[in-house]
Amino acid sequence: MTKPSPRNFLNKPDDNIAIRLSGLSKTYKAQGLSTPKNALKDINLEIPTGCIFGLLGPNGAGKSTLINILAGTVIKSAGSVTVWGENLDKNPRQCRANIGIVPQELNIDVFLTPYEALEFTAGMYNIPRKERLTKEILEIVGLTEQSHAYARTLSGGMKRRMLVAKAMVHSPPILILDEPTAGVDVALRQKLWENVRSLNDAGVTIVLTTHYLEEAEELCDHVAILNRGEVIVSKTKSDLLKSSGRKDLSVTIPQDQQQNPLPDSIKSLNPIATPNGFTIRFNPEQTNSGEILKEISKAGVQIIDVSTYQPDLEDIFLDITS
Ligand code: ADP
Ligand code: MG
């Protein structure tokens, strides 16, 4: 596969941080709002270069506000923003040149072909013809065959890939996708994920917002959870999954024992009754399934079957935001 131009990837910021937000706050004080709305409260966040970073959060958490500040369509109230080593207040143009934004809405000129749309966008960025990467970009997003088809004949998924292509025209080292697969069906979602992955393999730092936790679990190596304008947690996905602090051990016991009260030593483990036995929820940093099973045997309870369950991103998300 052809890689995007290394033009902007060559000089990585010294600290290997693609985006740094320090004390970032946004208060909307629009007329008609009875009280000002604190959409972002003292956000501190570091997005490393080269990662696929997922910004998760329920509706109204502040995800779009954060992205719109980066895009330059919302003015921050306080704090500082650094993009690829450039300060947003001192160097807004260079900051923006370092980012490509894929908006959520499918706002596409249906009378242009993908090829024409990319050439037009390149013209807006004053990219000389010789340096344009139109064909390469169309290949990366899998639209080579449709290069000269009118956009109105493209499927929803193809239109979205066309938006990704447009955001790549100026070869930004960072690509930001706001809810990239909202309203896209499952098969096309997989295709889009492949595109995102191959862009990342080519060196592009990816930031995406999503409310599909499955998407974050599948794609992202770093995850931040935003709730009511605050960053609740920001970790690598594997650390986040490990740090949930709970694991469930479910035990099936013989039918004739299911009616009997459990021995006190098991009651002290706070069992949750299930149709065939009980579940013990424990902190994997403090004990393990083996120890708990030993306790159960010691108490004279016969074990027919066991299973364990480790929370996924969705469980953790619900624990944190509810
Ligand atoms: P998300 O993208 O996570 O759903 P938003 O950033 O869109 O969240 O919104 C965060 C909060 O800020 C919400 O309470 C929303 O109502 C409010 N908000 C967003 N945009 C504006 C605006 N232009 N004026 C006033 N309040 C706004
Ligand atoms: Mg939003």
Any overview of this molecule?
There is one protein chain. This protein has helices spanning 63-71, 92-97, 114-124, 134-140, 156-168, 186-201, 213-219, 237-242, 264-267, 289-298, 313-321; strands spanning 17-28, 37-48, 52-56, 78-83, 86-87, 99-102, 174-178, 205-210, 222-227, 230-236, 247-252, 272-274, 277-282, 305-309. The chain folds into two domains: 17-241, 3-Layer(aba) Sandwich (Rossmann fold), CATH 3.40.50.300; 245-310, 2-Layer Sandwich (Alpha-Beta Plaits). A six-stranded mixed β-sheet has the order 6-7-8-3-9-10, with helices on both faces. It is α/β, with parallel strands linked by helices and 322 residues long. Mean pLDDT is 88; it is low at 1-6. The chain starts with 16 loop residues before the first strand and ends with a helix. It is built from eleven helices and 14 strands. It is 30% helix and 26% strand. Strand 7, helix 6 and strand 8 (205-210) form a beta-alpha-beta unit. It binds adenosine-5'-diphosphate and magnesium ion.
Q: Could you say which small molecules are bound to this protein?
A: adenosine-5'-diphosphate, magnesium ion
CATH class of the largest domain: Alpha Beta
Whole-angstrom Rg: 25 Å
Strand content: 25-35%
Q: What's the helix count?
A: 11
Brief characterization of the structure:
This protein has 322 residues and is α/β, with parallel strands linked by helices. Helices cover 30% and strands 26% of the residues.
